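Why do we care about 3D structure at all? Because function follows from shape, and shape follows, mostly, from sequence. That is the central idea of this module. The next example makes it concrete: a single protein chain, its amino acid sequence, and then its structure expressed as tokens.
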Amino acid sequence: MLARSHFTEGWLRLKPADWGRSLEALLNERDKLADPTHSGPAPGYLTWVAEVEMPRLRQSNDPFYARQFEAHDETA
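And the structure:
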């Protein structure tokens, strides 16, 4: 499988295992919300992305992610 775009950070491409982990978190938080009228990612997922996932990927020392964060930081 090729890298896929992150669910909320469209500039970030994720490796298959990381994409799957992010999808699982997205679905788990959606299910915890238990609100069929809610649209978009659950607030819990957005918090998890900001506090857990993004720091983990940034600090992973993986060149695949380091290049993407560097390019994004330059354009921000």
